[in-house]
Amino acid sequence: MRSVRPGGPEWEENTLAQTQSGAEGLLSLPALLQRNAKQFAHSPAYREKEFGIWQCWSWAEAEKEIEALALGLINLGVNKGDFIAVIGRNRPYMYWSMVAAQSVGAIPVPLYQDANAEEMAYVLSHCGARFVVVTDQEQVDKVIEVQDQLHQFEHLLYLDPRGLRKYDHSQLHQYSHVQDQGRAAYDEFIPELKKRRDELTYDSTCVMLYTSGTTGKPKGVVLSNRNVIESAKNASEFDKLGLDDEILAYLPMAWVGDFIFSVGQAYWTGFCVNCPESAETMMTDLREIGPSYYFAPPRVFETQLTNVMIRMEDAGNFKRKMFHHFMAHAKKVGPAILDDKPVGFMDRMKYALGDFLVYGPLKDTLGFGKVRVGYTAGEAIGPEIFEFYRSLGINLKQLYGQTEATVFITVQPDGEVRADTVGIPAPDVEIKIADNGEIFYRSPGTFVEYYKNPESTADTKDPEGWVATGDAGFFEDKSGHLRIIDRAKDVGKMADGSMFAPKYVENKLKFYPDILEAVLFGNGKDRCVAFINIDLTAVGNWAERNNIAYASYQELAGHPKVLASIREHVSTVNKSVAEDPMLSGCQVHRFVVLHKELDADDGEMTRTRKVRRRIVEDKFADIIAALYDGSETISTTTEVTYEDGRKGAISATLEIADAEVVSSMGHKVAAE
Amino acid sequence: MQDGYITEDGRKIGGVVMEMKNITLRFGGVVAIKDISFDIREGEIRAIIGPNGAGKSSMLNVISGFYVPQEGEVWFHGKPRPQMRPYEVAQQGIARTFQNIALFEGMSVLDNVMTGRLSYMKSGLFSQALWKGKAEAEEVANREVAEKIIDFLEIQHIRKTPVARLPYGLKKRVELARALAAEPKLLLLDEPMAGMNVEEKEDMSRFILDVNDEFGTTIALIEHDMGVVMDLSDRVVVMDYGKKIGDGTPDEVRNNQAVIDAYLGVSSD
């Protein structure tokens, strides 16, 4: 229930005091916006680089822009509870449209801008969006293409008028015109806007985000104001984020992470959200802004590291030697210095010198010069990559989360960062591990429901609020950190009852640049065997440098030297797997380097490059049998599909290699 | 002079901007262009096509005023045009791109685009060198125009890159940017898609259409890729061995027997 608000300056003061102390009365993002516009009026809220210059909006200015748009939306006839889809790249205007939608009681639904028209049609008709806000002609065209399938669609707002002059404008509106109309109708609609804004509660829907979903159609995850604000508040306090922090908003707006970082946390703490000029200029803009809070999936860190290494190879002799010398030192002491652990005086001095000569300039070039808190999540990051950034003094951490949890399930606290864990439960998050290893959580961020999908909601979230993640993992005894091992449905048991977690081992193998893909088998068996795919780029490069002639993928994959180097990798991985008593049964006893790359065209992988285990298992049953029966070679013929749809067959005789296994204490493994 | 027409996609084309009247151009004994007449109307995209050696580039050079025909007249805005110096051409609102890219290779993209603004800069050498007063204001104003064009052609990511380091397709786009920076009324494009792959051609086509749509620029272009020409242009002039063998909308030209013969050849009997 809403209490009647008394007017007068005393009240103003009171609320301000309240808002500074806590969440009283701040029950929605529009309410946070009102607070920010008063409290942080002149602090930068949004920046966007356009026409070569960083354009800036303060919180007070942003509030005016959002208000104008909200009034314009009322003018266009937006009702409470309508869905407003938002499609396009990260721009301040697009973020404003989401908050404007909330202000008028509508629900924003950000979509992936690279979604094709069909996917867009599904989501738009599933939520029944009456309004769509897009950036440019490209997105307008997609919406118009599927317009016939959208029965509730009425109006489309676009930002950039370029190329749209000749379009039929009965349903199209330029964003700035809608704002102009809103400003013009200020007196008429402002009472309505205020009323709708005040009606928002902690339980009103804040946003709806569609999960990409590896199986089946995307599901609309409904997140309430409570979910978003509590999660943003907890995470901001956890990392001590404040008004002076800066982020670069460049990840898809439809992704829950971007919504929490660039909207939730930005509104909670009042920090500035910077939008790049275009996708191509992201790296330059990153460097210019120098964010203090940064997020990227492992892929981005990997690409940057590769670029650094390639450029260092091209650098002069002196610079290259200096780089490698100091990087070796950073590897030794960098992470310890970052974690405030004891490090010798001389090592510290040398690190300081290295910072002056190498680390500092490098961080600056990468745009990480000011990063105070950096996160990576989404998938496992290679330990070398992770250590590289940490050793430079960049506080890169990992977190584990999902859309249904409003991102945060576990996070790594400062000083307790490791490559192989995902940290401790985030503030206010409870976690339990089921008997089969599956992780369940309950938190203030736990989603409300899947929109129009009660069955899936019931499958995922039980009446007590525990949500199944679908991932299997365990807490480490010593540190209390969570470790993710695999998707729960892929985790099995070996013949002796110990845990079989294929992805855990596969990831370790895949961290080697010359291994592109690995598939582990062993569910219900007494030992594990593996398929390996070499990475043609990396291995091909190596072959070129060592004058090893090869004519095809198959030939290179079967080369004795390649086999030897892969065998070494497998043995090293076995050693590291054996260190973990729970998983030591997953060591690879025998393996084969496959004669073809696993490919989506052959159905062996999904389009997003995830291995389809069952299909691979069926298709290569003869090779798996050979891996288990002790034969030394196997002749096989495999059907392949070419890109144009024609089919062919390749035959090969594959050599089967044995790998060294380590027997661990308390868990005897027969290493024949 | 007759009024304009309405194109298939509903654009209004205005009156005649430039008219070629019985142009004949000779290089010594070689006749490059023989008695050709056609007009270019305001706001249209006018293509000149023809097999190799048909005299297309020579024609474009006549339009730009670089070549002076031995016979015939070029009428511009209803008046016969006298012989001009290059800067006078620029002042009349004509800009062009070249078949073989002619950019300043050592300069950045931004600087190259800024050279397109040269005719708008009035401050003196000293003022510019000291970057004081008028020169500063002028630079800022011109930079703004340049940045809008950089944004328009989506080359923000290479703004500070030296042109020499760019791939061919992007260089072509930078050249277009420089031509646009002069805010031309008439834009001449000499084979804007030559040597491009399909994707680059699609991009370039979109930019040409957008330029025409957004700034209302009249465009005359030479192009080899027939698909592109037919899609882009409102009217097409077809040349062969220096003579005009066809003139009209893409459909008319496509069904013109003389054009078909020129492109596919005819049997000798």
TrEMBL record, chain B:
CDD domains recorded: ABC_Mj1267_LivG_branched (cd03219)
GO molecular function, one term: ATP hydrolysis activity
Domain ABC transporter: from-to ranges: 18-266
GO CC aspect terms: plasma membrane
Protein name: ATP-binding cassette domain-containing protein
InterPro entries linked to this entry: AAA+_ATPase, ABC_AA/LPS_Transport, ABC_transporter-like_ATP-bd, BCA_ABC_TP_C, P-loop_NTPase
UniProt KW keywords: ATP-binding, Nucleotide-binding, Transport
Keyword Nucleotide-binding included in the entry's annotation: yes
